Amino acid sequence: MAVAKGDFNGDGKLDVAVAISGGVDLIAILYGGTNGLQFSRQFSSAGVGVSALAVADLNRDGIADLIALNGSSGTIAVFLGQGQGVFRQPVTYPVGSVPSSFAVGDLGTGKLDIVVSHFGGLNTRTLGVLRGFGDGSFQPLSDFTLPAGSIPALLTLADVNGDGKLDLVGLGPNTFVPFTVPGPLVVMLGSGNGSFQAPMVTSLDQLAASIQVADLNGDGKPDLILANTGPVTIRLGNGDGTFQSGASFGGSTASLNGLATLVADFNGDNKPDIAGLVTQTGDAFVLLNARPGQAPWPVHDCGTVSDGPVHARNVSVAVDYGRRVLLVVEAGG
Asked: How far apart (Å, rounded) are the C-alpha atoms in residues 261 and 212?
Protein backbone atom coordinates (compact mmCIF):
# COMPACT_ATOMS: atom_id res chain seq x y z
CA MET A 1 0.00 0.00 0.00
CA ALA A 2 1.21 3.50 -0.79
CA VAL A 3 -0.12 7.05 -0.71
CA ALA A 4 0.77 10.22 -2.61
CA LYS A 5 -0.79 13.68 -2.72
CA GLY A 6 -1.36 16.25 -5.45
CA ASP A 7 -4.00 18.37 -7.14
CA PHE A 8 -5.12 15.93 -9.84
CA ASN A 9 -8.24 17.76 -11.05
CA GLY A 10 -6.89 21.31 -10.97
CA ASP A 11 -9.39 22.72 -8.47
CA GLY A 12 -6.73 23.99 -6.07
CA LYS A 13 -7.59 21.38 -3.42
CA LEU A 14 -5.31 18.58 -2.32
CA ASP A 15 -6.22 15.14 -3.66
CA VAL A 16 -4.84 11.74 -2.67
CA ALA A 17 -3.79 8.69 -4.67
CA VAL A 18 -3.84 5.37 -2.81
CA ALA A 19 -2.24 2.25 -4.26
CA ILE A 20 -3.41 -1.16 -3.07
CA SER A 21 -1.43 -4.30 -3.82
CA GLY A 22 -3.29 -7.59 -3.75
CA GLY A 23 -5.05 -9.95 -6.13
CA VAL A 24 -5.54 -6.97 -8.44
CA ASP A 25 -3.20 -4.02 -8.04
CA LEU A 26 -5.16 -0.78 -8.18
CA ILE A 27 -4.64 2.95 -7.75
CA ALA A 28 -7.59 4.87 -6.33
CA ILE A 29 -7.99 8.65 -6.62
CA LEU A 30 -9.74 10.55 -3.82
CA TYR A 31 -10.64 14.17 -4.46
CA GLY A 32 -10.18 16.71 -1.71
CA GLY A 33 -12.92 19.15 -0.78
CA THR A 34 -14.28 21.24 2.05
CA ASN A 35 -15.69 18.11 3.69
CA GLY A 36 -12.57 15.97 3.32
CA LEU A 37 -11.80 13.26 0.79
CA GLN A 38 -14.24 11.65 -1.64
CA PHE A 39 -13.59 8.61 -3.84
CA SER A 40 -13.39 9.48 -7.54
CA ARG A 41 -12.05 6.58 -9.60
CA GLN A 42 -9.66 3.66 -9.65
CA PHE A 43 -7.48 2.04 -12.31
CA SER A 44 -4.80 -0.62 -12.73
CA SER A 45 -1.28 0.08 -11.48
CA ALA A 46 0.04 -1.43 -14.74
CA GLY A 47 2.13 -3.91 -12.78
CA VAL A 48 2.27 -6.28 -9.82
CA GLY A 49 3.15 -5.43 -6.23
CA VAL A 50 2.71 -1.66 -6.30
CA SER A 51 4.70 -0.43 -3.32
CA ALA A 52 5.33 3.30 -3.79
CA LEU A 53 3.78 6.33 -5.49
CA ALA A 54 5.03 9.79 -6.35
CA VAL A 55 3.49 12.90 -7.92
CA ALA A 56 5.42 15.28 -10.19
CA ASP A 57 4.91 17.37 -13.31
CA LEU A 58 7.10 15.25 -15.56
CA ASN A 59 6.34 17.04 -18.83
CA ARG A 60 6.10 20.56 -17.37
CA ASP A 61 2.55 21.17 -18.62
CA GLY A 62 1.29 22.34 -15.22
CA ILE A 63 -0.72 19.14 -14.65
CA ALA A 64 0.19 16.60 -11.96
CA ASP A 65 1.48 13.25 -13.21
CA LEU A 66 1.60 10.00 -11.22
CA ILE A 67 4.48 7.52 -10.93
CA ALA A 68 4.01 4.02 -9.49
CA LEU A 69 6.68 1.52 -8.45
CA ASN A 70 5.59 -2.07 -9.08
CA GLY A 71 8.00 -4.09 -6.96
CA SER A 72 7.01 -7.61 -7.95
CA SER A 73 7.03 -6.95 -11.68
CA GLY A 74 10.13 -4.77 -11.51
CA THR A 75 8.68 -1.78 -13.34
CA ILE A 76 7.88 1.87 -12.93
CA ALA A 77 4.62 3.00 -14.49
CA VAL A 78 4.19 6.63 -15.58
CA PHE A 79 0.66 8.07 -15.76
CA LEU A 80 0.70 11.49 -17.43
CA GLY A 81 -2.10 13.74 -16.23
CA GLN A 82 -4.55 15.22 -18.72
CA GLY A 83 -6.40 17.43 -16.25
CA GLN A 84 -9.75 16.93 -14.52
CA GLY A 85 -8.32 13.91 -12.72
CA VAL A 86 -7.87 11.93 -15.94
CA PHE A 87 -4.61 10.16 -16.82
CA ARG A 88 -3.24 8.84 -20.10
CA GLN A 89 -2.60 5.14 -20.54
CA PRO A 90 0.51 4.25 -18.54
CA VAL A 91 3.95 3.70 -19.98
CA THR A 92 6.08 1.19 -18.08
CA TYR A 93 9.85 1.05 -17.72
CA PRO A 94 11.82 -1.98 -16.45
CA VAL A 95 13.86 -1.07 -13.35
CA GLY A 96 15.53 -4.34 -12.38
CA SER A 97 14.60 -7.06 -9.93
CA VAL A 98 12.91 -6.34 -6.59
CA PRO A 99 13.02 -2.52 -6.71
CA SER A 100 12.51 -1.17 -3.20
CA SER A 101 12.43 2.63 -3.48
CA PHE A 102 12.56 5.51 -5.94
CA ALA A 103 12.73 9.29 -6.00
CA VAL A 104 11.98 11.92 -8.64
CA GLY A 105 14.05 15.04 -9.18
CA ASP A 106 16.11 17.17 -11.55
CA LEU A 107 19.68 15.89 -11.30
CA GLY A 108 20.98 18.93 -13.13
CA THR A 109 19.75 18.61 -16.70
CA GLY A 110 16.65 20.76 -16.32
CA LYS A 111 14.49 17.65 -16.76
CA LEU A 112 13.02 15.37 -14.12
CA ASP A 113 14.75 12.02 -13.65
CA ILE A 114 13.84 8.94 -11.60
CA VAL A 115 16.42 7.27 -9.33
CA VAL A 116 15.60 3.74 -8.19
CA SER A 117 17.17 1.12 -5.90
CA HIS A 118 16.92 -2.45 -7.19
CA PHE A 119 18.49 -5.90 -6.84
CA GLY A 120 21.76 -6.13 -8.72
CA GLY A 121 22.70 -9.77 -8.22
CA LEU A 122 25.07 -11.57 -5.83
CA ASN A 123 22.79 -10.65 -2.91
CA THR A 124 23.45 -6.93 -3.37
CA ARG A 125 21.46 -3.92 -4.47
CA THR A 126 22.35 -1.23 -6.98
CA LEU A 127 21.17 2.24 -7.98
CA GLY A 128 19.89 3.11 -11.41
CA VAL A 129 18.41 6.18 -13.08
CA LEU A 130 15.74 6.73 -15.70
CA ARG A 131 16.90 9.95 -17.34
CA GLY A 132 14.02 12.12 -18.44
CA PHE A 133 13.55 13.66 -21.87
CA GLY A 134 11.39 16.43 -20.38
CA ASP A 135 8.22 15.29 -22.14
CA GLY A 136 7.23 12.66 -19.57
CA SER A 137 9.20 9.86 -21.23
CA PHE A 138 12.50 8.36 -20.09
CA GLN A 139 15.62 6.65 -21.34
CA PRO A 140 16.17 2.99 -20.36
CA LEU A 141 17.53 2.32 -16.89
CA SER A 142 21.22 3.11 -16.48
CA ASP A 143 22.98 1.82 -13.36
CA PHE A 144 25.56 3.73 -11.35
CA THR A 145 28.88 2.05 -10.57
CA LEU A 146 29.17 2.09 -6.77
CA PRO A 147 31.34 0.29 -4.22
CA ALA A 148 29.87 -2.59 -2.24
CA GLY A 149 28.14 -1.59 0.99
CA SER A 150 27.10 1.85 -0.27
CA ILE A 151 23.85 1.11 -2.09
CA PRO A 152 20.75 2.14 -0.12
CA ALA A 153 17.45 0.28 -0.25
CA LEU A 154 15.46 3.38 0.69
CA LEU A 155 16.30 6.76 -0.83
CA THR A 156 15.24 10.36 -1.13
CA LEU A 157 16.56 13.40 -3.00
CA ALA A 158 17.29 16.71 -1.26
CA ASP A 159 19.91 19.46 -1.29
CA VAL A 160 21.73 18.68 1.95
CA ASN A 161 24.86 20.82 1.40
CA GLY A 162 23.20 24.02 0.17
CA ASP A 163 24.81 24.20 -3.27
CA GLY A 164 21.53 24.17 -5.18
CA LYS A 165 22.06 20.62 -6.49
CA LEU A 166 19.99 17.62 -5.49
CA ASP A 167 21.83 15.05 -3.40
CA LEU A 168 20.87 11.46 -2.65
CA VAL A 169 20.27 10.39 0.94
CA GLY A 170 19.49 6.76 1.58
CA LEU A 171 19.32 3.93 4.06
CA GLY A 172 20.80 0.46 3.71
CA PRO A 173 21.36 -2.32 4.02
CA ASN A 174 23.06 -3.42 0.84
CA THR A 175 21.27 -6.78 0.77
CA PHE A 176 18.60 -8.54 -1.25
CA VAL A 177 15.99 -8.16 1.51
CA PRO A 178 15.94 -4.53 2.71
CA PHE A 179 15.21 -3.24 6.23
CA THR A 180 16.23 -6.44 8.02
CA VAL A 181 19.52 -5.32 9.62
CA PRO A 182 20.67 -1.83 10.71
CA GLY A 183 22.21 0.78 8.44
CA PRO A 184 24.11 2.17 6.78
CA LEU A 185 23.25 5.81 6.13
CA VAL A 186 24.43 6.77 2.63
CA VAL A 187 24.87 10.33 1.32
CA MET A 188 25.87 11.00 -2.30
CA LEU A 189 26.35 14.67 -3.14
CA GLY A 190 24.97 15.71 -6.50
CA SER A 191 27.37 16.92 -9.19
CA GLY A 192 24.68 18.87 -11.03
CA ASN A 193 25.24 17.00 -14.31
CA GLY A 194 23.08 13.94 -13.67
CA SER A 195 25.69 12.11 -11.59
CA PHE A 196 26.71 11.87 -7.95
CA GLN A 197 29.98 12.08 -6.06
CA ALA A 198 31.41 9.11 -4.16
CA PRO A 199 29.16 7.80 -1.37
CA MET A 200 29.70 8.89 2.22
CA VAL A 201 28.70 5.92 4.37
CA THR A 202 27.88 6.04 8.08
CA SER A 203 27.10 2.91 10.10
CA LEU A 204 23.87 2.95 12.08
CA ASP A 205 22.95 0.89 15.15
CA GLN A 206 19.27 1.56 14.47
CA LEU A 207 17.05 -0.42 12.11
CA ALA A 208 15.50 2.36 10.06
CA ALA A 209 12.91 2.07 7.30
CA SER A 210 11.81 5.69 7.10
CA ILE A 211 13.85 8.76 6.20
CA GLN A 212 12.74 12.38 6.03
CA VAL A 213 14.75 15.54 5.35
CA ALA A 214 13.77 18.89 6.91
CA ASP A 215 15.32 21.85 8.74
CA LEU A 216 14.03 21.08 12.22
CA ASN A 217 16.04 23.55 14.30
CA GLY A 218 15.81 26.57 11.99
CA ASP A 219 19.53 26.97 11.30
CA GLY A 220 19.11 26.73 7.52
CA LYS A 221 20.74 23.29 7.37
CA PRO A 222 18.69 20.19 6.45
CA ASP A 223 18.34 17.56 9.18
CA LEU A 224 17.44 13.86 9.00
CA ILE A 225 14.55 12.07 10.71
CA LEU A 226 14.98 8.30 10.95
CA ALA A 227 12.59 5.76 12.43
CA ASN A 228 11.19 2.24 12.28
CA THR A 229 10.63 -0.03 15.27
CA GLY A 230 13.05 1.97 17.39
CA PRO A 231 12.62 5.51 18.70
CA VAL A 232 12.26 8.42 16.31
CA THR A 233 15.80 9.74 15.85
CA ILE A 234 16.97 13.13 14.59
CA ARG A 235 20.41 13.76 13.10
CA LEU A 236 21.11 17.48 12.86
CA GLY A 237 22.79 18.57 9.65
CA ASN A 238 26.15 20.29 9.45
CA GLY A 239 25.26 21.96 6.15
CA ASP A 240 27.95 20.17 4.14
CA GLY A 241 26.16 16.86 3.56
CA THR A 242 27.28 15.35 6.86
CA PHE A 243 25.15 14.86 9.95
CA GLN A 244 25.68 14.73 13.69
CA SER A 245 25.06 11.68 15.86
CA GLY A 246 21.42 10.81 16.37
CA ALA A 247 19.34 11.98 19.32
CA SER A 248 16.01 10.46 20.35
CA PHE A 249 13.21 13.01 20.55
CA GLY A 250 9.70 12.93 21.88
CA GLY A 251 9.77 11.85 25.51
CA SER A 252 9.87 8.21 26.54
CA THR A 253 11.60 6.13 23.87
CA ALA A 254 9.75 3.10 25.19
CA SER A 255 6.35 4.62 24.39
CA LEU A 256 7.24 6.31 21.11
CA ASN A 257 8.70 3.49 19.08
CA GLY A 258 7.24 4.15 15.67
CA LEU A 259 7.58 4.95 12.04
CA ALA A 260 7.98 8.65 11.21
CA THR A 261 5.69 9.00 8.25
CA LEU A 262 5.35 12.73 7.72
CA VAL A 263 7.07 16.03 8.47
CA ALA A 264 4.79 19.08 8.35
CA ASP A 265 3.64 22.06 10.43
CA PHE A 266 0.65 20.68 12.33
CA ASN A 267 0.08 23.47 14.86
CA GLY A 268 0.60 26.56 12.70
CA ASP A 269 3.77 27.87 14.38
CA ASN A 270 5.84 27.69 11.14
CA LYS A 271 8.05 24.92 12.51
CA PRO A 272 8.11 21.38 11.04
CA ASP A 273 6.63 18.71 13.30
CA ILE A 274 6.81 14.92 13.00
CA ALA A 275 3.88 12.50 12.65
CA GLY A 276 4.45 8.90 13.64
CA LEU A 277 2.88 5.66 14.77
CA VAL A 278 3.43 3.56 17.90
CA THR A 279 3.96 0.17 16.34
CA GLN A 280 3.17 -1.79 19.50
CA THR A 281 -0.31 -0.31 19.94
CA GLY A 282 -1.34 1.24 16.62
CA ASP A 283 -1.60 4.70 18.22
CA ALA A 284 -0.75 7.72 16.06
CA PHE A 285 1.08 10.72 17.45
CA VAL A 286 2.58 14.05 16.44
CA LEU A 287 5.84 15.35 17.93
CA LEU A 288 5.49 19.12 18.15
CA ASN A 289 8.72 20.94 17.34
CA ALA A 290 10.41 22.43 20.44
CA ARG A 291 13.07 24.32 18.50
CA PRO A 292 15.96 24.81 18.91
CA GLY A 293 16.84 21.15 19.33
CA GLN A 294 15.17 20.70 22.70
CA ALA A 295 14.00 17.31 23.93
CA PRO A 296 11.56 16.00 24.85
CA TRP A 297 9.23 17.49 22.27
CA PRO A 298 5.56 17.85 23.26
CA VAL A 299 3.54 14.85 22.13
CA HIS A 300 0.01 15.14 20.74
CA ASP A 301 -2.00 11.92 20.81
CA CYS A 302 -3.94 11.46 17.56
CA GLY A 303 -5.82 8.35 18.66
CA THR A 304 -5.67 4.73 17.57
CA VAL A 305 -5.56 3.77 13.89
CA SER A 306 -5.37 0.02 14.52
CA ASP A 307 -6.80 -2.32 17.15
CA GLY A 308 -3.47 -4.05 17.73
CA PRO A 309 0.25 -4.06 17.00
CA VAL A 310 1.26 -2.73 13.59
CA HIS A 311 4.53 -3.51 11.86
CA ALA A 312 6.26 -0.31 10.83
CA ARG A 313 6.48 -1.35 7.17
CA ASN A 314 2.69 -1.85 7.06
CA VAL A 315 2.16 1.90 7.39
CA SER A 316 2.27 3.90 4.20
CA VAL A 317 3.23 7.55 4.03
CA ALA A 318 0.87 9.96 5.70
CA VAL A 319 -0.66 12.98 4.03
CA ASP A 320 -0.91 16.43 5.58
CA TYR A 321 -4.47 17.37 4.65
CA GLY A 322 -5.35 20.76 6.06
CA ARG A 323 -3.33 20.06 9.23
CA ARG A 324 -5.05 16.71 9.54
CA VAL A 325 -3.00 13.54 9.17
CA LEU A 326 -4.20 10.70 6.96
CA LEU A 327 -2.47 7.48 8.05
CA VAL A 328 -3.16 4.47 5.86
CA VAL A 329 -2.54 1.12 7.56
CA GLU A 330 -2.36 -2.04 5.50
CA ALA A 331 -5.21 -4.44 6.14
CA GLY A 332 -4.20 -7.23 8.44
CA GLY A 333 -1.35 -5.13 9.90
From this structure: 8
State how far the alpha carbon of 272 is from the alpha carbons of 47, 213, 232, 287, 291, in Å.
35, 11, 15, 9, 9
Q: Which long-range contacts (CB under 8 A, 24 or more apart) does 51-55 make?
A: 51/2, 51/19, 51/21, 51/100, 52/2, 52/19, 52/101, 52/102, 53/2, 53/3, 53/4, 53/17, 53/19, 53/27, 54/4, 54/102, 54/103, 54/104, 55/4, 55/5, 55/6, 55/17
Strand ranges inside 45-109, DSSP E: 50-56, 65-70, 75-79, 81-83, 86-87, 91-94, 97-106
pTM of the model: 0.86
- Identify residue 236 by its one-letter amino acid code: L
Ranges of H-type helices in the chain:
none
Instruction: Show pLDDT as tens, one digit a residue, over the chain (333 residues).
Output: 678 888 999 998 888 888 877 667 889 898 887 777 788 888 988 888 888 899 999 999 999 999 999 988 999 999 999 988 899 999 999 998 888 889 999 999 899 999 999 876 655 678 899 999 999 999 999 998 777 777 788 889 999 999 999 999 988 764 555 555 666 889 999 999 999 999 998 887 666 667 889 998 889 999 998 876 566 778 889 999 999 887 665 444 344 555 556 788 877 788 888 877 665 556 677 778 876 555 556 666 665 555 544 444 444 444 555 555 555 444 333
Tell me if residue 135 falls in helix, strand or coil. Answer: coil
Tell me if 297 sits within 8 A of 288, measured CB to CB.
yes
Q: How far apart are CA 95 and CA 72, in angstroms?
A: 11
Angle at 144 between CA 141 and CA 150, to 5 degrees: 130
CA 245 to chain centre: 22
